[in-house]
Amino acid sequence: LLFCSPAQPASCADITHARQLGLVKVLADGPVVEVRADAGYQGLGAQTGGRVVTPPRKFKKDAPDWYEEMHERQRKAHSSRRIRVEHGIAHLKNWRALARHHGRREHMTDTIQAIAGLLSHQQTITLAVDERM
Question: Which of the 8 DSSP states describes residue 42?
């Protein structure tokens, strides 16, 4: 887990939230990493020097058959590589505190970050044990 954003008081588009938090600048100026993002982050690749990779955009109208086939192959390839990200998100949601959150929204950020820290620690220990075997 690389980043866990704070909870917002209202709904906000993913890309807007990333920009407001300065995540785009961190990705553009920081170490060279490739971030596999979903379609909610379309356009960030150009702003981060290609570090954010999103699924390919679809042709608006009357796409040729060859384009449809190419688009589907690229979309599946992106999805196959991004599945690890989705599994990471699922691990967070499996924690009871997040799966059935009925508490106050003000405490949500602390809860998410605490669980993310515990999950990261748990995965680190699991990797260390696996390496010893």
Answer: T
